[in-house]
Write a structure and sequence with these properties.
Helices cover 3% and strands 45% of the residues. The protein is mainly beta. The strands form five sheets. It has a six-stranded antiparallel β-sheet, with no helix packed on it. A six-stranded antiparallel β-sheet has the order 4-14-13-10-6-7, with no helix packed on it. Strands 3-15 form a two-stranded antiparallel sheet. The protein is globular.
Length: 209
Amino acid sequence: MGLRKERAILHIKERLINEAPREFAVMWGHHPAIGEPFLDDSCIVQTTAGRVKVMEFHRNGLWERGEFEFPLVPNRRTGQLEDITRIRPRETGSVDVVSFWDLKEGWYGLTNQRRRVGFGMAWDKRLFQCLWMWQVYGGHDDYPWYGRTYNVALEPFTSWPPAGVANAVNNGTALVLKPNEVVETDLVAVAYEAEGIQGIERDGTVRLA
């Protein structure tokens, strides 16, 4: 990981090596989690997805399980279609794991529109083909947080679901490395000032709205 002078960009270079004499299946991803005081109900997520998948995860889930057209998903409590990319307040009392698919480009921005600042990432969408979103709006009321947490994590990943690599193998999303295969990639994480963005380039350049 590296920083460059006078630029709010974290450059990340990674290498994955299969040292085994046989194929090896993996799930490869990243888990940046964001909370208060940055996170509040003025925040929005922007990305270029086409589909949303909602995992059956917790009894306090807000969203219906299934696959839907991005970004509208049925709210389990109201039955209404709602924008899943708008951050809910802590008082919502929910927790969900969802993923975004059919990415036109590999990037996302999480923007606090009240503070006019944001955090985002960019990556190779051919490798990290989906974006997980862990939404904890005060609803993780059991072990290990007992209702104390208010956060989201936005996670570029090769595979789905979080339930384990065996499931990813079964659904065809696991990354399978050949014997002695080496995979290299780079990502960026950026901070920016804006009420919204149009994209983030792999060199960290933010396209402002």
